[in-house]
Amino acid sequence: MSSSAISSVPLSTKHQTRVTRPLVVFAWGTLAFNVLVILWGNVVRATNSGNGCGNHWPFCSGQIVPTLTNVHTQIEFWHRASVGLGFFAIIGLLIWTRLSTAPWHMARKTATLAVVFAVLEAFLGAMLVKLGYTGQDHSVGRVILLSIHLTNTMMMLGAMAMTANLLAQNQDKAKLAIKRNEVILLLVGMLATLVVCVSGSLAALGDTLFPMPTLAMAVQKDFAASSPWLLRLRWTHPALAMIATIFIFWIAIRALINTGTIKIARRNRIISGMLIGLIGYQFSIGLLDVVLLAPVPLQVLHLLGADMLWIALVLLVAGTAFPPTEAIE
Fold first, then answer.
1. Is the same domain home to 12 and 88?
2. Whether 61 and 164 share a structural domain
3. What does the mean pLDDT of the chain come to?
4. 329 pLDDT more than 50
5. Final residue belonging to a domain, choices 118, 152, 173
6. Which tens digits make up the pLDDT trace of 263-322?
7. Are 147 and 191 members of one domain?
8. What is the domain extent for residue 152?
9. Of the candidates 141, 158, 173, which is a domain's last residue?
10. Residues near 270 by beta carbon (within 8 Å), at least 6 away in sequence
11. pLDDT value at position 11?
Protein backbone atom coordinates (compact mmCIF):
# COMPACT_ATOMS: atom_id res chain seq x y z
CA MET A 1 0.00 0.00 0.00
CA SER A 2 1.27 3.46 -0.87
CA SER A 3 2.31 5.67 2.04
CA SER A 4 0.08 8.39 0.58
CA ALA A 5 -2.94 6.18 0.94
CA ILE A 6 -3.76 7.26 4.47
CA SER A 7 -7.29 5.99 4.78
CA SER A 8 -9.36 3.25 6.33
CA VAL A 9 -7.42 -0.03 6.23
CA PRO A 10 -9.24 -3.11 7.55
CA LEU A 11 -6.89 -5.44 9.41
CA SER A 12 -9.48 -7.92 10.65
CA THR A 13 -13.19 -8.25 11.08
CA LYS A 14 -12.85 -7.33 14.77
CA HIS A 15 -10.13 -4.67 14.79
CA GLN A 16 -9.49 -2.07 12.13
CA THR A 17 -6.94 0.67 11.57
CA ARG A 18 -8.38 3.98 10.42
CA VAL A 19 -5.34 6.24 10.05
CA THR A 20 -6.62 9.48 8.54
CA ARG A 21 -4.68 12.38 7.08
CA PRO A 22 -5.69 14.74 9.93
CA LEU A 23 -4.15 12.29 12.43
CA VAL A 24 -0.88 12.16 10.49
CA VAL A 25 -0.79 15.96 10.21
CA PHE A 26 -1.47 16.24 13.94
CA ALA A 27 1.34 13.78 14.71
CA TRP A 28 3.92 15.72 12.67
CA GLY A 29 2.53 18.99 14.03
CA THR A 30 2.93 17.76 17.62
CA LEU A 31 6.55 16.89 16.88
CA ALA A 32 7.21 20.30 15.28
CA PHE A 33 5.57 22.18 18.15
CA ASN A 34 7.63 20.33 20.75
CA VAL A 35 10.81 21.15 18.82
CA LEU A 36 9.84 24.82 19.14
CA VAL A 37 9.25 24.30 22.87
CA ILE A 38 12.75 22.86 23.20
CA LEU A 39 14.23 25.80 21.31
CA TRP A 40 12.44 28.20 23.65
CA GLY A 41 13.88 26.23 26.56
CA ASN A 42 17.30 26.97 25.11
CA VAL A 43 16.45 30.67 25.21
CA VAL A 44 15.54 30.25 28.89
CA ARG A 45 18.96 28.78 29.61
CA ALA A 46 20.90 31.18 27.38
CA THR A 47 19.29 34.25 28.97
CA ASN A 48 19.64 32.95 32.55
CA SER A 49 15.86 32.98 32.94
CA GLY A 50 15.51 29.55 34.54
CA ASN A 51 14.83 31.14 37.92
CA GLY A 52 12.40 33.69 36.48
CA CYS A 53 9.56 32.07 38.40
CA GLY A 54 11.56 31.47 41.55
CA ASN A 55 11.55 27.94 42.93
CA HIS A 56 7.82 27.52 42.31
CA TRP A 57 6.53 24.75 40.06
CA PRO A 58 4.33 24.23 38.08
CA PHE A 59 2.96 27.71 38.70
CA CYS A 60 5.15 30.75 38.16
CA SER A 61 5.92 32.62 41.37
CA GLY A 62 3.05 30.69 42.95
CA GLN A 63 0.49 32.13 40.51
CA ILE A 64 -1.23 30.70 37.44
CA VAL A 65 -0.60 33.97 35.59
CA PRO A 66 2.08 36.03 37.39
CA THR A 67 2.85 39.70 36.99
CA LEU A 68 4.96 39.79 33.83
CA THR A 69 7.00 42.90 34.48
CA ASN A 70 10.38 41.15 34.58
CA VAL A 71 11.78 39.91 31.26
CA HIS A 72 13.18 36.75 32.86
CA THR A 73 9.77 35.97 34.32
CA GLN A 74 8.18 36.46 30.90
CA ILE A 75 10.63 34.11 29.21
CA GLU A 76 10.25 31.37 31.83
CA PHE A 77 6.46 31.74 32.09
CA TRP A 78 5.85 31.39 28.36
CA HIS A 79 8.21 28.44 28.26
CA ARG A 80 6.20 26.68 30.95
CA ALA A 81 2.96 27.52 29.14
CA SER A 82 4.31 26.06 25.88
CA VAL A 83 5.55 22.96 27.72
CA GLY A 84 2.03 22.42 29.03
CA LEU A 85 0.52 22.75 25.56
CA GLY A 86 3.11 20.36 24.14
CA PHE A 87 2.40 17.83 26.89
CA PHE A 88 -1.35 17.82 26.27
CA ALA A 89 -0.70 17.53 22.52
CA ILE A 90 1.31 14.36 23.14
CA ILE A 91 -1.49 12.99 25.34
CA GLY A 92 -3.95 13.79 22.55
CA LEU A 93 -1.71 12.04 20.03
CA LEU A 94 -1.75 8.86 22.12
CA ILE A 95 -5.54 8.92 22.54
CA TRP A 96 -6.16 9.60 18.85
CA THR A 97 -3.67 6.91 17.82
CA ARG A 98 -5.29 4.32 20.08
CA LEU A 99 -8.73 5.19 18.72
CA SER A 100 -7.52 4.90 15.12
CA THR A 101 -5.31 1.80 15.15
CA ALA A 102 -5.57 -1.90 15.87
CA PRO A 103 -4.19 -3.16 19.21
CA TRP A 104 -1.00 -4.51 17.60
CA HIS A 105 -0.14 -1.35 15.68
CA MET A 106 3.44 -0.17 16.36
CA ALA A 107 2.37 3.49 16.55
CA ARG A 108 0.51 2.70 19.77
CA LYS A 109 3.75 1.60 21.41
CA THR A 110 5.79 4.60 20.26
CA ALA A 111 3.02 7.05 21.21
CA THR A 112 2.92 5.48 24.68
CA LEU A 113 6.69 5.89 24.95
CA ALA A 114 6.33 9.55 23.94
CA VAL A 115 3.89 10.10 26.82
CA VAL A 116 6.22 8.34 29.28
CA PHE A 117 9.14 10.52 28.21
CA ALA A 118 6.91 13.63 28.37
CA VAL A 119 6.00 12.83 31.98
CA LEU A 120 9.67 12.32 32.82
CA GLU A 121 10.45 15.59 31.03
CA ALA A 122 8.07 17.47 33.30
CA PHE A 123 9.48 15.76 36.38
CA LEU A 124 13.09 16.52 35.45
CA GLY A 125 12.23 20.14 34.66
CA ALA A 126 10.54 20.47 38.03
CA MET A 127 13.60 19.00 39.76
CA LEU A 128 15.89 21.54 38.10
CA VAL A 129 13.71 24.34 39.46
CA LYS A 130 13.04 22.94 42.93
CA LEU A 131 16.69 22.04 43.53
CA GLY A 132 17.86 25.49 42.45
CA TYR A 133 19.77 24.20 39.41
CA THR A 134 19.10 27.39 37.44
CA GLY A 135 20.63 30.81 36.98
CA GLN A 136 24.34 30.92 37.81
CA ASP A 137 24.48 27.51 39.47
CA HIS A 138 27.22 25.32 37.97
CA SER A 139 27.24 22.45 40.47
CA VAL A 140 27.85 18.82 39.58
CA GLY A 141 24.24 18.11 40.44
CA ARG A 142 23.01 20.54 37.79
CA VAL A 143 25.31 19.05 35.16
CA ILE A 144 24.15 15.50 35.90
CA LEU A 145 20.45 16.38 35.99
CA LEU A 146 20.73 18.57 32.91
CA SER A 147 22.42 15.72 31.01
CA ILE A 148 19.63 13.32 31.97
CA HIS A 149 17.07 15.97 31.05
CA LEU A 150 18.49 16.47 27.56
CA THR A 151 18.81 12.73 26.95
CA ASN A 152 15.16 12.29 27.88
CA THR A 153 14.23 15.19 25.60
CA MET A 154 15.88 13.53 22.61
CA MET A 155 14.22 10.20 23.40
CA MET A 156 10.85 11.97 23.53
CA LEU A 157 11.48 13.56 20.13
CA GLY A 158 12.51 10.19 18.72
CA ALA A 159 9.34 8.52 20.00
CA MET A 160 7.16 11.26 18.50
CA ALA A 161 8.99 11.09 15.18
CA MET A 162 8.54 7.32 15.07
CA THR A 163 4.84 7.66 15.85
CA ALA A 164 4.29 10.17 13.06
CA ASN A 165 6.29 8.07 10.60
CA LEU A 166 4.52 4.82 11.48
CA LEU A 167 1.14 6.49 11.10
CA ALA A 168 2.12 8.08 7.78
CA GLN A 169 3.26 4.71 6.40
CA ASN A 170 0.52 2.82 8.25
CA GLN A 171 3.22 0.34 9.32
CA ASP A 172 1.61 -1.85 11.94
CA LYS A 173 4.29 -4.52 12.47
CA ALA A 174 8.08 -4.77 12.58
CA LYS A 175 10.46 -7.38 11.22
CA LEU A 176 14.23 -7.09 11.66
CA ALA A 177 15.81 -6.83 8.20
CA ILE A 178 19.52 -6.60 9.08
CA LYS A 179 22.08 -8.68 10.95
CA ARG A 180 22.31 -8.32 14.71
CA ASN A 181 25.90 -7.05 14.58
CA GLU A 182 24.68 -4.22 12.35
CA VAL A 183 21.98 -3.44 14.91
CA ILE A 184 24.74 -2.95 17.48
CA LEU A 185 26.59 -0.55 15.20
CA LEU A 186 23.40 1.40 14.54
CA LEU A 187 22.75 1.69 18.26
CA VAL A 188 26.34 2.79 18.88
CA GLY A 189 25.91 5.50 16.26
CA MET A 190 22.74 6.74 17.92
CA LEU A 191 24.36 6.65 21.35
CA ALA A 192 27.36 8.60 20.04
CA THR A 193 24.99 11.24 18.64
CA LEU A 194 23.20 11.48 21.99
CA VAL A 195 26.53 11.98 23.78
CA VAL A 196 27.41 14.78 21.36
CA CYS A 197 24.08 16.47 22.08
CA VAL A 198 24.66 16.26 25.83
CA SER A 199 28.23 17.57 25.53
CA GLY A 200 26.91 20.42 23.38
CA SER A 201 24.38 21.41 26.04
CA LEU A 202 27.13 21.47 28.67
CA ALA A 203 29.36 23.55 26.41
CA ALA A 204 26.49 25.98 25.88
CA LEU A 205 25.94 26.14 29.64
CA GLY A 206 29.60 27.07 30.06
CA ASP A 207 29.22 29.81 27.46
CA THR A 208 26.26 31.23 29.36
CA LEU A 209 27.73 31.06 32.85
CA PHE A 210 31.25 32.19 31.92
CA PRO A 211 31.03 34.59 28.94
CA MET A 212 34.31 35.76 27.47
CA PRO A 213 34.99 39.14 25.81
CA THR A 214 37.29 37.74 23.10
CA LEU A 215 37.84 34.46 21.24
CA ALA A 216 41.51 34.36 22.31
CA MET A 217 40.54 34.57 25.97
CA ALA A 218 37.87 31.92 25.50
CA VAL A 219 40.38 29.49 23.99
CA GLN A 220 42.89 30.26 26.73
CA LYS A 221 40.29 29.58 29.43
CA ASP A 222 39.44 26.22 27.85
CA PHE A 223 42.91 24.92 28.68
CA ALA A 224 43.80 26.90 31.82
CA ALA A 225 44.13 24.78 34.96
CA SER A 226 42.44 27.51 36.99
CA SER A 227 39.33 27.60 34.76
CA PRO A 228 35.97 26.18 35.89
CA TRP A 229 35.70 22.55 34.86
CA LEU A 230 32.74 23.31 32.56
CA LEU A 231 35.05 25.43 30.40
CA ARG A 232 37.84 22.85 30.45
CA LEU A 233 35.43 20.26 29.07
CA ARG A 234 34.23 22.37 26.13
CA TRP A 235 36.82 20.90 23.75
CA THR A 236 35.21 17.47 24.12
CA HIS A 237 32.13 18.59 22.19
CA PRO A 238 33.78 19.09 18.77
CA ALA A 239 36.00 16.05 19.37
CA LEU A 240 33.00 13.84 20.10
CA ALA A 241 31.14 15.35 17.14
CA MET A 242 33.91 14.16 14.80
CA ILE A 243 33.61 10.61 16.16
CA ALA A 244 29.82 10.60 15.90
CA THR A 245 30.04 11.88 12.32
CA ILE A 246 31.91 8.72 11.31
CA PHE A 247 29.08 6.58 12.61
CA ILE A 248 26.42 8.78 11.01
CA PHE A 249 28.14 8.55 7.62
CA TRP A 250 28.29 4.77 7.99
CA ILE A 251 24.57 4.67 8.83
CA ALA A 252 23.77 6.84 5.80
CA ILE A 253 25.85 4.65 3.47
CA ARG A 254 24.37 1.47 4.96
CA ALA A 255 20.87 2.81 4.32
CA LEU A 256 21.72 3.74 0.72
CA ILE A 257 22.81 0.19 -0.12
CA ASN A 258 19.86 -1.36 1.71
CA THR A 259 17.81 -3.57 -0.58
CA GLY A 260 14.09 -3.03 -0.82
CA THR A 261 11.40 -1.45 -2.94
CA ILE A 262 11.94 1.63 -5.06
CA LYS A 263 9.90 3.61 -2.52
CA ILE A 264 12.12 2.53 0.37
CA ALA A 265 15.30 3.24 -1.61
CA ARG A 266 14.04 6.73 -2.49
CA ARG A 267 13.13 7.39 1.14
CA ASN A 268 16.59 6.29 2.30
CA ARG A 269 18.26 8.56 -0.25
CA ILE A 270 16.24 11.56 0.89
CA ILE A 271 16.88 11.05 4.61
CA SER A 272 20.56 10.19 4.06
CA GLY A 273 20.97 13.39 2.04
CA MET A 274 19.28 15.34 4.83
CA LEU A 275 21.65 13.81 7.39
CA ILE A 276 24.76 14.70 5.42
CA GLY A 277 23.45 18.21 4.81
CA LEU A 278 22.62 18.66 8.49
CA ILE A 279 26.12 17.55 9.49
CA GLY A 280 27.58 20.26 7.26
CA TYR A 281 25.11 22.77 8.69
CA GLN A 282 25.99 21.81 12.28
CA PHE A 283 29.73 22.16 11.79
CA SER A 284 29.25 25.53 10.06
CA ILE A 285 26.94 26.92 12.74
CA GLY A 286 29.15 25.46 15.47
CA LEU A 287 32.20 27.22 14.06
CA LEU A 288 30.33 30.53 13.85
CA ASP A 289 29.08 29.98 17.38
CA VAL A 290 32.65 29.67 18.64
CA VAL A 291 34.04 32.60 16.63
CA LEU A 292 31.18 34.94 17.57
CA LEU A 293 31.25 33.86 21.25
CA ALA A 294 27.91 32.02 21.33
CA PRO A 295 25.21 34.64 20.69
CA VAL A 296 21.74 33.40 21.61
CA PRO A 297 20.34 33.28 18.02
CA LEU A 298 23.22 31.05 16.90
CA GLN A 299 22.74 28.80 19.92
CA VAL A 300 19.09 28.37 18.96
CA LEU A 301 19.97 27.60 15.33
CA HIS A 302 22.62 25.11 16.48
CA LEU A 303 20.11 23.32 18.71
CA LEU A 304 17.55 23.30 15.89
CA GLY A 305 20.10 21.55 13.68
CA ALA A 306 20.81 19.03 16.44
CA ASP A 307 17.11 18.25 16.87
CA MET A 308 16.57 17.85 13.12
CA LEU A 309 19.66 15.67 12.77
CA TRP A 310 18.52 13.43 15.63
CA ILE A 311 15.02 13.06 14.19
CA ALA A 312 16.40 12.21 10.75
CA LEU A 313 18.81 9.71 12.28
CA VAL A 314 16.06 7.98 14.26
CA LEU A 315 13.88 7.66 11.16
CA LEU A 316 16.75 6.36 9.02
CA VAL A 317 17.89 3.80 11.61
CA ALA A 318 14.35 2.58 12.18
CA GLY A 319 13.66 2.41 8.44
CA THR A 320 16.87 0.47 7.88
CA ALA A 321 16.40 -2.02 10.72
CA PHE A 322 12.61 -2.36 10.47
CA PRO A 323 11.46 -1.34 6.98
CA PRO A 324 7.82 -1.77 5.96
CA THR A 325 6.98 -5.41 5.31
CA GLU A 326 6.88 -5.11 1.54
CA ALA A 327 10.52 -3.97 1.56
CA ILE A 328 11.80 -7.19 3.11
CA GLU A 329 9.58 -9.88 1.70
1. yes
2. yes
3. 88
4. no
5. 173
6. 778 888 899 999 999 999 999 999 999 999 999 999 999 999 999 999 999 999 998 888
7. no
8. 1-173
9. 173
10. none
11. 38
Q: Based on the domain organization, do 143 and 253 belong to the same domain?
A: no
- Looking at the fold, whether 160 and 268 belong to one and the same domain comes out as no
Assessment of whether the complete model's pTM goes beyond 0.70: yes
Return the HEC string of the chain: CCCCCCCEEECCCCCEEECCHHHHHHHHHHHHHHHHHHHHHHHHHHCCCCCCCCCCCCCECCECCCCCCCHHHHHHHHHHHHHHHHHHHHHHHHHHHHHHCCCCCHHHHHHHHHHHHHHHHHHHHHHHHHCCCCCCCCCHHHHHHHHHHHHHHHHHHHHHHHHHHHHHHCCCCCCCCCCHHHHHHHHHHHHHHHHHHHHHHHHHHHHHHCCCCCHHHHHHHHCCCCCCHHHHCCCHHHHHHHHHHHHHHHHHHHHHCCCCCHHHHHHHHHHHHHHHHHHHHHHHHHHHHHHCCCCHHHHHHHHHHHHHHHHHHHHHHHHHHCCCHHHCC
Tens digits of per-residue pLDDT, 216-231? 999 999 999 899 989 9
How many structural domains does the chain have?
2
